[in-house]
Amino acid sequence: MADFDAKVELSKIPHEPGVYRYFDELGEVIYVGKAKDLRNRVSSYFAKSNQHDRKTKRLVSQINRLEFTIVPTEWDALLLENQLIKRFQPKFNILLKDDKSYPFICITHEPFPRVLTVRRVDRKLGTYFGPFANQRAMYALLDMFRELFTVRSCHLNLSPENIESQKFKVCLEFHLGNCKGPCEGRVSENEYDIEIDQIQSILKGNLTLPQQYFKEQMVQAAEKMAFEAAHEWKTKIELLSNFQSKATVVNPRMGDIDVLTIVSDEEAAYLNFMKITNGYVVATQTFDIKKKLDEPDEELLAMMLVEMRETYGSEAKELISNLKPDLDLKIEVVIPQIGDKKKLLDMSLKNVLFFRREKAERRAVEASATTSKRDRILIKMKADLQLKSLPRHIECFDNSNIQGTNPVAAMVCFKEGKPSKKDYRHYTIKTVIGPNDFASMNEVVGRRYARLLQENEPLPDLIVVDGGKGQLSAACDALKELNLYGQIPIIGIAKRLEEIYYPEDSLPLYIDKKSESLKLIQQIRDEAHRFAITYHRDKRSRYSLVSELENVEGIGKKTAAVLLKHFRGVKAIRESSLETLAAVVGPDKARKVKLYFDNMTSEN
């Protein structure tokens, strides 16, 4: 925001409909919005900013630059906004993505087209119908197509040249009566395409055309005394009528209508879309979108209307909804009060409310399952260790000194049974000379809780010490010095038999090896050990590098540490030029370092 002068930028924006884009200091698009009056809308972000919610304040604080595009109408702004959100995926927008989660039915663009199910849309491949949120309904359609029509299922390239050269032979599907053998030229493209047209009509929700065609074929067969063929056509009419009776019919005279309803809470909006074609519900989808800012329902409804109409290929002139956006949508928006349209609205809202309730119940069950499992383990640990309260905050200490060098310690923290890595701490042993695990444990425990007391931070519900009676006793002495002994439960866990030791008790506790509480204690102990070992290796590696640099005459530990901090390793120091080294430690020391490594190279 430092380089962004809101007053100057706002003065450049016209009172026209359009789309605006906010950029951060890295040049990334962070928000795309539409407006029927660009200046008024953009100005609202910078005026009375104290009235914005937390998310909007975050957005405004990150705006470094803005761009806008003027468009003829609000509807054009809505379309452009939709495309830009998909393109840039801004972090403060509700993310709109091309739908790849639901399948489509595709009728391919090729000689003797095939009917396929696909998830990736490539308009060059064919004509798409869907998506189908209900896959069972989609497969029921495909099963009906197989019974009604004889469309090929093979992947052969049935070009006129290949058919004429008799490149292919009919397969089992032909002998079963499921295909008319276009691969051998047994059916013309025109005759084959008649069936494809029937399939397209059904997928578009228009059953009149295939019904009429089947009746004509039945009558012609009967007139020719081909009663067996006439019966087959009659069976197909009955099959199509049966499908029609199961389809959701609203009112055949209603024509083509879209239905989109919305309800929302603070976190998300829940919507139901229905596509009505010739009075039939041919597509429906219920979904939720997570709010990024405090977007009003009217704005979300308009945005998702564009998305749904594009996804389902709808060109209906009327929309039934429970809200009426203050926006020229180039489509009549109706909030019906009576009749069949009111029934449609009620059916859509019923789906939305059921979906929201189901989502809430699922979240509650998942939260309950997670909580019950976590609390079950902590309750079990409380009982196993005879604690007075649940150990929601556990801290565990471990020492590491391989062959007595570079002694270090580590503390890991678990909250609610899970690692709280931001609370992990490393310790370099300061007061202990040589390998003395007991004294090291005493030092780090004392330093940790002296610091918490000084900063008035909450103390843990349980302290775990990696080790047996000796380490536990040393940790207890540190607590006594701070007058904390007896206030915080503390235990030691010995590795050999996983015994649990208590202060001033020579007899260990053996918890069942299958116990969830023991497994959690082991997990905490192992994490402390890993964290300590990692730090020790890093420190030992760094110490060895410092030691090597100290071989250079006139270079001490302090200079060696400066070099390593800058170059990150001896190799980088060795390969650096004299000028680069001089910029870090001065010309005199740089010459000494350069001479040392040059001599090493010549000796080798």
- CATH topology of the largest domain: the name is Nucleotidyltransferase, domain 5
Number of domains: 5
- Unreliable spans: none
Describe the largest sheet: 7 strands, mixed
What share of the residues lie within helices?
A: 40-55%
Shape: elongated
Number of DSSP helices?
19
Determine and state the CATH class of the largest domain.
Alpha Beta
Percentage of β-strand residues: 15-25%
Q: What's the CATH superfamily of the largest domain, by name?
A: UvrC, RNAse H endonuclease domain
Helix vs. strand class:
alpha+beta
| CATH level-two architecture of the largest domain | 2-Layer Sandwich
> Count of DSSP E strands?
18
Give average pLDDT, whole number.
Answer: 80
Span from first to last CA? 57 Å
Radius of gyration, taken over Cα atoms and rounded to an integer in Å: 37 Å
Indicate the multimeric state: single chain
